[in-house]
Amino acid sequence: MHVVVVGCGRVGSALALSLTGNGHSVAVVDRRPDAFGRLGASFAGTTVTGIGFDRDRLVEAGIERADALAAVTSGDNSNVLVARVARENFRVERVVARIYDPRRAAIYQRLGIPTIATVAWTTERVLRRLLPDEPAVEWVDSSARVMVVERLVPAPWAGHAVDGLDAPGRFRVVAVTRIGVGQVPSPGLVLQEGDAVHLAVAHDAVAELDARLHGSAKEGHA
């Protein structure tokens, strides 16, 4: 497929090289000609010098035949503008914008612009390395009403069926990782101590989930 990458910093150049390495057609747009030096002399794609939201430059980059576009410049406003032009004017099916401000990212998600909030994503991963015992939030939807969390199965739940953890309308187990191998649980799957369970949880039900996990397993079936 053909991908347009707007921004040739560390992220954009790494993305472009990965895509070409996997056999995709890639065009990289950046306003600084010297930025393309990050791609190396063997880069198999094309480069276009100019502003990323300039329609003529996007056309030169092949956006009219593009299957996807990634806006990964250093500016939130530029990335969102590029993403909107790609989506609304050129009908590119897959578009993503890199956003530094997590508050803006939530707003743009609601407007239908897929975003990667780099500050929030990086902060959460660093905290998980620094504080491994802290509860992990893997994903939050754009309305902040549903999240996916990871929890380790405590000893009292070992030997009990996974669906005993579910609370209809509040939280539900969607995956179980055991000894490094993930699976979508079937009804009746027996939990083992140390399993990592991934649950879709309503935003106001996290404390309720933790209370169930650390209470009696029998209470979970009540």
Provide the domain count: 2
Annotated CATH topology of the largest domain: Rossmann fold
- Rg computed from alpha carbons, rounded to a whole number of angstroms: 22 Å
Number of helical stretches of at least 4 residues: 7
Structural class: alpha/beta
- CATH homologous superfamily classification of the largest domain: NAD(P)-binding Rossmann-like Domain
Distance N terminus to C terminus? Answer: 52 Å
CATH architecture of the largest domain: 3-Layer(aba) Sandwich
In what order do the strands lie side by side in the largest sheet?
3-2-1-4-5-6
- Biggest sheet, in brief? 6 strands, parallel
Outline: elongated
Determine the fraction of residues in helical runs and give it as a percent range.
25-40%
Q: Can you count the beta strands?
A: 11
Low-confidence stretches: none
Average pLDDT confidence is 86
Task: Name the beta content range.
Answer: 25-35%
Order of helices and strands: EHEEHEHEHEHEEEEEHH
Explain what the structure shows.
This protein is of the alpha/beta class and 222 residues long. The protein folds into 2 domains: 2-122, 3-Layer(aba) Sandwich (Rossmann fold), CATH 3.40.50.720; 135-220, 2-Layer Sandwich (Alpha-Beta Plaits). The protein is 30% helix and 26% strand. The protein has helices spanning 10-21, 55-60, 76-89, 102-110, 118-130, 206-214, 217-220, and strands spanning 2-6, 25-30, 46-49, 68-71, 94-99, 115-117, 136-140, 146-152, 171-178, 181-183, 196-202. Helix 1 (10-21) links the parallel strand 1 and strand 2. The longest helix is centred in the middle third of the chain and has 14 residues, at 76-89. It is elongated and about 60 Å long. 30% of the residues are buried.
